[in-house]
Every structure is written in structure tokens, then in C-alpha cells.
Amino acid sequence: MSTAAIPGAPLPVRTPGSRARGRHRRPERPEIPAGSPSLVLAVPAAAGPESRPVVEELLSIVRGEQPGIEAAAAYLESTDPEYPTIAGLLAQAAEAGLPAPVLVPLLPGPHGFLTELHRLAAETGATVTDVLGPHPLLAEAVHVRLSEAGLARADRARLFAIATAADGVVLTTAGGEEAAAAAGITGVLLAARLAVPVVAAALDVPGSVLAAVEHLRATGSVRPALAPLVIGPEADPELLATAAEETGCPGAAPLGAYAALGQLVASAYLSALQIALPDEA
Predict the structure, then answer these.
(1) Number of structural domains in the chain
(2) Which of 73, 99, 180, 263 could bridge 41 with an S-S bond, Cβ 3.0-4.6 Å?
(3) pTM above 0.90, yes or no
(4) For 186-195, how does the pLDDT look when each residue is reduced to its tens digit (9 = 90+)?
(5) Which residue ranges does the record annotate as region Disordered (predicted)?
(6) In a shared domain, residues 118 and 189
(7) Helix-helix angle 259-272:52-65, to 10 degrees
């Protein structure tokens, strides 16, 4: 019986709940020190109607992951003052006497854009974080996009495969052979989730995706599918369409503003500030 129902009993006292433990608890968010540099999501594309919605949604996720964070996006090119270029935003910060921002490249792996980004950062003393992958959350994101396209089925609770419509997957990347090679780790993680063979191929290397599909077919796959390991802005949409047309394979959508990408962006920023995440402390 509750003490509140007993006449004359003292009022119940609210006591702090014990911290939830285990894999389902929500991690405590670390505090960002005052005066810390801002986070700038460096977008490897021009500001336009194709890139902006994904970028703005990811920024919203980042701010939700880390309340109080000062986060903005900057683009490789822009003709609209409302959407600054990376060079322009870095120059503004320097002119205002603000700490050089932390640049988080909106990329899952290696890409030619990184050369230009590091050049711009070196001119202003800005920090460039690592790209977002490889990471198990990227494999999860690809798995979800495959399931949304009807190419894989996922358990609603744990996202592990029950059955799959595709019996082989080509993990497509943008960034040349280096990006395809780096995607191998994510491919291994994805293969473990789907229980089907996964090979990586570069969208921007002629013949790479077709060769990967032919390899899967030669090794027994009869229903191969294409799964982009691209967020969106870093890849020419025509490359995705061309790959599907050349191979005749169904494909999933790019990762886009998948929620876990926002977590990876926030984590990259905190790592650059040398702030340990709760599970790493």
C-alpha cells in the first residue's frame, strides 16, 4: 500500500532513480566546455535543392543529440548567402576572432573532396575530423534502406535479418577505388547482418559496379541488389541511375538523413575536442 493512502503518514519523497544500466540505457551527454569551437558540417557539394534538405535534417539530429552545440553547415560551392561556402564561413570566423571551427566531412569514407577540405582548414587552423566510416551504424543504415526497398527484411527490435529478398549485395561508393576498398569493413558487417555475400564497388569508376554484380552472379547469386554507401550530396545522382540501368539490379536509396549519421557527426566533433563519450570514459 502506498504511504499516500495512510492518514497521517509523511508525504512520499521523490528519490533520484538509479542510473539505468545495460545496452538499452540512454547514454549521458557530455558537456561541451564554454568557448569551444563550433561544429561545421562540411558538405562535398554545391548548396542546392538536392543537398540542402538532407543537410538541414542532419543538423537538426546533431542538435538533438547534443543540446547546446553550435552547429552549422557549409558547402563546397554556393551562390546563396544564406548557405555559406566552407571557405567563406572559415573566413568569417577568422575575421570575427572566433575559434577555428571543427570541420566534420559529410562522408562515409575516402573522397577527393577531402584534399580541398584539408587545404582550406590548413589556411585557417581549423580541425578536420575523420570521415564517418567505417562504423557498425553505417551497416545498420544500409540494412534499413535495403529493407525499406523491399530487398531485405529486418527484425523490428534488433534490425537483424530474418530473410532477404536479395541473395547478394553490391555496396556502392563514391570516391574511387580507395572508397570502395575502405567500404570493405562495412561490407563485412553488412554481410553478417544479411547472411548474404557483399562486395564493394565504386560508382565513379567505369565498369566497377557491373564487374561486382557479375562476380556475385558467377558465385551463385541470382537476385543481386545495389546498396549505396553514400549519404547523397557526395555522389552524382546520375551515377546511381546509370549503375542500376547497366546492371539491371534493383537498388536501395542513399543513406540520406538517417538518424545514426547525426550520432556519428556529433561523436566525431566530441572526439576532436577530446571529450570522451560516456561508453568510452
Answers:
(1) 2
(2) 73
(3) no
(4) 999 999 999 9
(5) 1-38
(6) no
(7) 60
